[in-house]
């Protein structure tokens, strides 16, 4: 819901850092891998109830997640395609989205490991994440098949369908879990319900656009 509104605030500093790194030899896929590694470290911290450490690692991981695309747009191309103007690539976009979805579900799984009494609600939240993720990716596949594209969320590898619960809201909820771990169940119940509303809204959007 807030992703498109945050882009004008987030993109300028990311682009400034990306321009400085563009000649350093650091590739977008390296940054994607770093973000994923930081996410794994955050999951481990959650599993052993180190919530402050986990929160810091989550923030660093998501900064890396935003940085990989910025570097791709500014770095000298390393592509097999002779007309490439940037390092943006389909495989880079693929790596990024796979890492993102593993990160989000992995955080919830790690919380369930650290707090087994909350495991049932964690399972419900992962179920809701599957709904938002599948409705998001399925729409992108059909949109690509039809040649649809837009850049409201910034320049992306594929079509981004908006909703109530997007990346920024999910990150905020993960951080809320770290700050208020004893309130995991009510927070997860509310956010999971909003995820289901987002899924339902995307299904309706797909019906209107593709039906």
Topology:
Blueprint: H1 3-21, H2 28-47, H3 51-74, H4 90-114, H5 119-146, H6 167-179, H7 184-210
Text of the CATH class: Mainly Alpha
The overall strand count is 0
Give the structural class: mainly alpha
* The CATH fourth-level homologous superfamily: CDP-alcohol phosphotransferase transmembrane (TM) domain
| Percent of sequence in beta strands | under 5%
Protein name: CDP-alcohol phosphatidyltransferase
Pfam family, one: CDP-OH_P_transf
GO biological process, one term: phospholipid biosynthetic process
GO molecular function: phosphotransferase activity, for other substituted phosphate groups
Please, could you describe this protein's structure?
This protein is 74% helix and 0% strand. By secondary structure, the protein is mainly alpha-helical. It has one domain: Four Helix Bundle (Hemerythrin (Met), subunit A) (Up-down Bundle). Helix 1 packs across helix 3, helix 2 packs antiparallel against helix 3 and helix 6 packs antiparallel against helix 7. The longest helix is centred in the middle third of the chain and has 28 residues. It is globular, with a radius of gyration of 18 Å. About 5% of the residues have low confidence.
Question: In summary, what is this structure?
Answer:
The chain is mostly helical. The protein has seven helices and no strands.
Overview features:
211 residues; mainly alpha; globular; Four Helix Bundle (Hemerythrin (Met), subunit A); phosphotransferase activity, for other substituted phosphate groups; 74% helix
């Amino acid at each position: 819901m807030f992703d498109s509104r945050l882009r004008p605030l987030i993109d300028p500093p990311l682009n400034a850092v990306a321009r400085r790194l563009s000649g350093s030899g650091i590739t977008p896929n390296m940054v994607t891998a770093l973000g994923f590694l930081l996410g794994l470290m955050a999951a481990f911290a959650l599993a052993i109830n180190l919530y402050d450490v986990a929160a810091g690692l989550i923030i660093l991981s998501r900064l890396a997640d935003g940085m990989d695309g910025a570097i791709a747009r500014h770095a000298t191309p390393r592509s097999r395609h002779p007309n490439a103007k940037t390092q943006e690539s389909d495989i880079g976009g693929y790596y990024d989205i796979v890492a993102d979805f593993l990160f989000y579900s992995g955080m919830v799984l790690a919380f369930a490991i650290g707090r087994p009494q909350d495991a049932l609600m964690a399972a419900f939240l992962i179920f809701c994440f599957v709904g938002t993720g599948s409705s998001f990716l399925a729409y992108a596949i059909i949109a690509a098949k039809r040649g649809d594209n837009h850049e409201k969320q910034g320049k992306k590898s594929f079509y981004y369908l908006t909703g109530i619960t997007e990346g920024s809201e999910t990150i905020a909820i993960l951080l809320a879990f770290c700050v208020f771990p004893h309130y995991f169940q009510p927070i997860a119940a509310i956010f999971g319900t909003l995820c289901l509303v987002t899924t339902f809204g995307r299904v309706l959007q797909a019906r209107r656009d593709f039906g």
